[in-house]
Amino acid sequence: MNIKNRLIKTATLLIVLQLVLSLNSVSGEATDLELTLSFTNLGDPGDDHYEGWLIVDGSPVSTGKFSLDANGGIVDLSGTAITTFSVSAIDLELATKFVLSLEPMGDTDTVPAAIKPLAGDLNVAKTSSTLTPNLGVDLGTVAGSYILATPTNDPVTNENSGIWFLDPTGTDPVAGLTLPDLTGTDWTYEGWVVMNGTPVTTGTFDTVAGVDASAPYSGTQAGPPFPGEDFLDNAPTGLTFPTDLSGMTAVISIEPRIDNAASPFQFKPLMGAIPVDAIDHTLYALHDMSSTLAAGTVSIAEVTSETTSTTSTTPAATTSQSTDDDSPGFGLALISLSFFTILVVKRKNN
Ligand SMILES: [Ca+2]
Ligand SMILES: [Ca+2]
Ligand SMILES: [Ca+2]
């Protein structure tokens, strides 16, 4: 083999080598990003767990499952503290959004569960996302009021044993709640009275006006066209109906439309202590608790400790180039140099 052919072969080999290393370098970057999560007021998932997702080109890609310890710290499913999650740079390039799902115990599939409490768009630089309740509506101004009354039996008996989210002070009763319509979203409202520690439902509803979805404890007469419940019959175990709701707590929660639990979901935008001396048919206010709904922040950064590179052990590293091996410019320069060598050798050959 003459020297020219040998040079051509060497140059060709260098091109191939650099192309292979470039590919290695790209796939190496796939795990070179760290995703950090922080939350305020995120609820204990109980037997369930949370899972983070990047929405990549419209499809969910898991960033990892986690739970919360007693102090709200992020832990893996065996209870060990986690500081960061690993994400692929290639995925991040096409990612637009971060979504937090609530996955059932034992979940092993690679798709998000139906309950997705928080979500947020990634910023343009794809370094962060602000997570807010994934309700599909803006809660905006939240307010509420209610009366105690039992309109579903006779007009005068056990009037403190029912709660109705209406305002009776005008000519005709009007809605007592100021909350956006949840029709068409993955969420619905639910009213509750917490009785001796047991939350008892008043029914679910999407709109503040109109009859709610159920009347499990009410009497036989029709109630007013607003959410509410009389607690007259079918008392849950441990409770006695009729009762007196004075001193108990009224709550409006936001529930996943596909509900997985009998107790209230963690989103509770309205809450109020029913006065201990409550008088029936008197308007009482609920407190705006919307600022207590969960929120979060996603931060994405390059792994700072990553220094070694496969290219540093290649013949290419023996050149006088001082450029960082990872820079694409170096690879291009090497390929150009190799082509140039081939050209020069071929020209001399001719
Ligand atoms: Ca799942
Ligand atoms: Ca009554
Ligand atoms: Ca009801």
Structural classification = alpha+beta
**Count of beta strands:** 20
Helical content stands at 10-25%
The succession of helices and strands, N to C, reads: HEEEEEHEEEEEEEEEEEEEEEH
Are any ligands bound, and if so which? calcium ion
The low-pLDDT segments are 19-30, 306-335
What brief labels describe this structure?
350 residues; binds calcium ion; nine-stranded antiparallel β-sheet
Short description:
The chain has 350 residues and is an alpha+beta fold. Helices cover 16% and strands 32% of the residues.
Q: What report would you give on this structure?
A:
With 350 residues, this protein is an alpha+beta fold. It folds into three domains: 3-28 and 310-349, no CATH class; 33-134, no CATH class; 143-292, no CATH class. It is built from three helices and 20 strands. The strands form three sheets. The protein has a nine-stranded antiparallel sheet. Strands 9, 10, 13, 14, 15, 16, 17, 18 and 19 form a nine-stranded antiparallel sheet that branches. A hairpin with a 2-residue loop joins strand 14 and strand 15 (198-205). Residues 19-30 and 306-335 have low confidence and may be disordered. Residues 103, 107, 109, 111-113 line the site of one calcium ion.
